[in-house]
Design goal:
The complex is a heterotetramer, with two copies of chain A (267 residues), one copy of chain B (214 residues) and one copy of chain C (264 residues). Chain A is of the alpha/beta class. Helices cover 31% and strands 23% of the residues of chain A. In chain A, strands 1-11-10-4-9-8-7 form a seven-stranded mixed beta sheet, sandwiched between helices. The longest helix of chain A is centred in the middle third of the chain and has 15 residues. Chain C has 264 residues and is mostly helical. In chain C, a hairpin with a 2-residue loop joins strand 1 and strand 2. Classes of the chains: A alpha/beta (267), B mainly alpha (214), C mainly alpha (264).
């Protein structure tokens, strides 16, 4: 397979670091490998400014989920360090400012009712019951699932589960949200609703996805990972529009970036 | 193999609850001694649910079928979490499918749970007692013992409770004969349960050895 | 397996529905135990009457009781068929080698009476109290946190895992499992091996999911402060009706036990 | 929501039935509902010819999985009947000529090694060990996973698991294969491999998917389901290119069918 040195189009991490918005995530020379396996991430350095919406793309097993797990302190890096809003992240420590949406919402909806589930985070943060209630209501409204509060998570549809899981994160008012393949088995209607929701969200957002059209609509920056390195980092349309780059790393140029007038199909 | 409501006198039910209380307290104490007890709660809970669900799997033995109890296996996999897990599983069974009963919950938990703890200790002793055996055989043999004895002892407790508690008028020889035939009748079941446990543990050993670390 | 239909709470308005869950749990629990002490045939009608009265008060539909009795009913059938024919010396009636015996009949009456009454109380408890409320009441009565947390989590994933097993069994059948003919009274080793793998996969998948669930819980602060899933607030001050019901049930329970001791 | 009568573009099921190729699946007035729920499928009539590659599209919960379960005899229809190659299908009966790929490959991989797993079906069909071995080797070759035969399915990547599951089906030499959302969390490289594989497959194939571009590349006929009915059945490009029809049923026209030259993105 072809290897490329980090191609930086548009945004340059160092330049960003000197920008005006505060830095939400600063990861420095991060390395990680699972026991008895080759390293998944090798010296990854990454800076995300507050309010950025970053898409993370790369083939199956390139380490997207692993990166997210590191950024929220669930996994401990072998080397390197992470700062969130200037404060170092100690793995295992509870940092309510960062939240992770798991790929499968069932992993994340562990309470017996939707209301309890959304309340779980705020309760653990030590808020009093009135504040917890207020947060539950607000988060449910934001995610548009206020009508589901008294239901059992198990009986919801896939799309509803997804939005309940998001509400559970919002109730903790995180400043950074990591979304791991949020569209994997959503239908187009629910996917469209999620796109609207993300376009209006104000948090710093990282999204790992194979759905490039989705990344294109939501993100203002994209990071391409392969073989443990950041291969490219910059403007989504430039990176994903670069056919040679994409194909070299097992991806495809999204259809909406291919100039064509009804042709090239049905050989 | 659950004792339903209405068969046992209140004293026996109360004694069952007392033993269950002590066993639960003891298990919780052992659990809380671990470095991070909260970390094991999700694992124990999901496996409790899985065991509850798996108890609906049956082995066809035409023209009938054998339901598995899996209490020995529970002990082998969950260690000290086995007793609370069995208590919770039986609670669900009583509530959801009316299997067992609420007054007999303590008795049933004792009947299944104490042998499960025993199975755990048998399985854990494999490296000490079973040194002579080569590795996969050793795990298989001790898993078999755990499964077979887990069920066997539970069955003995079950029979003893039933025989000594219902028909006060049955005469002594008839009683002995009944216990004997029923116990002998349970031997094939214990063998099936032991074999199944051994097969399953060997599968786990190959695919997911972490699950056997207790 | 009936797990999928585990939501047994029936939404109705009744005295029993309004009863404070904690008092209901304690009162009905004690009454069940009082039922379990009954050894006198004479008390059986009283016991059944009490259970029926409470069931009437709860306004649960009869169909609910009938449905739920079908499984344990098999047990009753066994008792009814076996005991009167085998236990005791006083023959009441005889047809050839079949003899109906008095002691057996008495034992049957007692067992079936106790069984039905206790079970009915259990269904009243379950049918009028949502499961989560019941668990909350148990917590406030001193159920250890770890046990309560485990119960909640297992309850949550019970359905998920049951669906997982159902899907895996479908997948196996679609690949020909269980379609070969089996010999009578034989355990087929190959079948058993495949079922062991099925169970093993169920455990492994549950275990792997539990690891992800644990991560998700940690990220939302589980294990930080020790106050996990607090007991639901006990609603409004207890009404007079609440105490009256509790008192009446407790008096009935004590009355039964006393009557039993006098008659014994 | 708007309702439309069955729009038939291009292919007409009755016309097909009179065509020259034999009929693989004939479903007649099929109805189905889960207990205590409104009917999911209502009088669905469907004819699939041998060698057809049919895509089934529709929003979450429209009944795609349910239809597949009916077609392979796992569920029993409330009304209507199904014939496979002219023979009536009795629910519960084992029909090795039809195979189902479950959405989650973990649902169908149980054995401790890939080889054992692929052998599972042929063994149950009663072949002798030599024949079983031959089938395992052949199926593994066809799915391109011969190098994985001695691995444990559990430790494979998502895409590898998918191909092993497919090999497990191929070893039974089915004539009809039902694929339930086969691309849900595949990356583009694995997805591309699957597209190639399906384009070269000779079985009669039904594919349920939200990935319309995928359906467009693989299928020669598409069926749109909504509210328990077949809304449209015919040429993929015509149906999916019909923006009004697609949007009326909660779908979107795929990007590759939208005529444009690098525009309309990044508002
Ligand atoms: N718990 C684990 N133990 C061992 N190896 C693991 C574990 N989790 C992931 N891996 C391996 O680490 C690599 C990166 O996995 P990761 O899940 O981060 O990939 P990903 O980019 O999220 O892939 P996908 O697109 O499929 O979600 C893969 O090769 C995977 O096999
Ligand atoms: N086991 C079940 N019990 C009750 N209802 C069910 C069950 N399975 C599915 N349903 C319901 O039947 C309807 C159709 O479900 P089905 O899974 O067939 O949809 P689908 O088209 O495959 O959706 P998706 O795109 O999400 O896979 C849905 O409304 C769903 O909620
Ligand atoms: Mg991932
Ligand atoms: Mg589906």
């Amino acid at each position: 397979m072809m290897m490329m040195d980090s191609v930086s189009t548009g945004l340059n991490p160092v330049a960003i670091a000197q920008g005006q918005r505060p830095i939400a995530i600063a990861a420095n020379a991060l390395s990680f490998g699972y026991p008895d396996q080759p390293q998944v991430l090798r010296e990854v350095t990454l800076t995300v400014q507050e309010g950025d919406r970053v898409g993370i793309i790369g083939h199956n097993g390139c380490g997207k989920t692993t990166l997210f797990m590191l950024l929220c302190g669930v996994l401990t890096p072998v080397a390197g360090e992470i700062h969130l809003f200037g404060e170092p992240l100690t793995p295992g420590q509870f940092r309510p400012e960062v939240a992770l949406l798991f790929q499968d919402p069932d992993d994340q909806l562990f309470s017996a009712s939707v209301r309890d589930d959304i309340a779980f985070g705020p309760q653990n943060m030590g808020f009093d019951p009135a504040e917890v209630d207020a947060r539950v209501t607000q988060a449910a409204d934001m995610a548009g699932i206020a009508h589901l509060l008294d239901r059992t998570p198990h009986h919801l549809s896939g799309g509803e589960k997804q939005m309940v899981a998001i509400a559970g994160l919002l109730a903790m008012t995180p400043q950074i949200i990591l979304y791991d393949e949020p569209t994997a088995s959503l239908d187009l209607r629910t996917r469209r609703r999620l796109i609207r929701f993300l376009q209006n969200s104000t948090e710093t957002v990282l999204i790992s996805s194979h759905d490039l059209e989705f990344v294109l609509e939501v993100c203002d920056r994209v990071i391409l990972i392969d073989e443990g390195h950041i291969i490219a980092d910059g403007c989504p349309r430039e990176i994903m529009g670069d056919q040679t780059l994409m194909e070299a790393h097992g991806l495809e140029k999204p259809h909406s970036l291919i100039p064509h007038v009804e042709s090239h199909h049905g050989e | 193999m659950h004792i339903p409501d209405g068969i046992l006198p209140a004293q026996v039910c109360a004694a069952g609850y007392a033993i269950t209380g002590v066993a639960t307290w003891y298990s919780l104490r052992q659990i809380n001694r671990r470095p991070d007890p909260a970390a094991e709660v999700p694992k124990a809970s999901l496996l409790t649910a899985a065991f509850f669900v798996a108890s609906s799997i049956y082995i066809p033995v035409p023209p009938a079928s054998v339901h598995l109890i899996l209490n020995g296996l529970l002990g082998v996999v969950l260690g000290y979490f086995a007793f609370p897990a069995i208590l919770i599983g039986l609670f669900f069974q009583a509530l959801v499918i009316g299997h067992g009963g609420l007054t007999t919950l303590g008795v049933n938990a004792t009947m299944m749970g104490i042998p499960a703890l025993l199975a755990y200790h048998i399985f854990q002793s494999r490296d000490v007692v079973g040194k002579v055996l080569p590795e996969p055989t050793r795990t298989g043999v001790f898993a078999f013992l755990g499964g077979a004895l887990g069920l066997g002892i539970a069955a003995l407790i079950f029979l003893a409770l039933i025989i000594f508690n219902i028909p006060a008028e049955l005469n002594a020889t008839a009683e002995q004969a009944a216990v004997l035939t029923l116990s002998v009748g349970h031997i094939p079941l214990a063998l099936v349960e032991g074999t199944f446990t051994a097969m399953l543990v060997l599968f786990l050993r190959r695919v997911k050895p972490e699950l056997l670390e207790g | 397996m009936g797990v999928a239909s585990a939501n047994t709470y029936i939404h109705r308005e009744s005295v029993i529905h309004d009863w404070s869950p904690r008092l209901k749990l304690v009162s009905l629990g004690l009454l069940m135990f009082a039922f379990a002490t009954v050894q006198q045939l004479a008390l059986v009608p009283w016991m059944l009457g009490l259970a029926a009265l409470l069931y009437g008060l709860s306004q649960l539909p009869i169909s609910f009781l009938r449905q739920r009795l079908s499984y344990p009913g098999l047990f009753i059938l066994a008792v009814v068929v076996l005991l009167p024919l085998t236990v005791g010396d006083t023959v009441v009636a005889q047809w050839g080698w079949l003899a109906l015996r008095e002691e057996g009949l008495r034992a049957t009456g007692l067992i079936v009476g106790r069984f039905l009454s206790i079970l009915t109380l259990g269904f009243i408890l379950l049918g009028t109290t949502p499961f989560l409320t019941l668990l909350g009441a148990m917590r406030s009565l001193g159920l250890p946190t770890l046990l309560a947390d485990m119960t909640l989590l297992s309850y949550r994933y019970l359905f998920e895992i049951a669906a997982m097993l159902a899907t895996m069994q479908q997948a196996m059948r679609l690949r020909g499992f269980g379609h070969s003919r089996q010999r009578w009274l034989r355990v087929n080793r190959h079948t058993m091996q495949q079922l062991a793998m099925l169970t093993g996969n169920l455990l492994i998948r549950s275990y792997e999911q539990s690891e992800r669930v644990y991560k998700a819980m940690r990220l939302r602060g589980y294990g930080q402060s020790r106050q996990v899933a607090p007991a639901p607030a006990i609603a409004s001050p207890l009404s007079l009706q609440n105490w009256a019901l509790t008192g009446a049930v407790l008096v009935a329970a004590v009355g039964l036990v006393l009557a039993e001791m006098r008659l014994a």
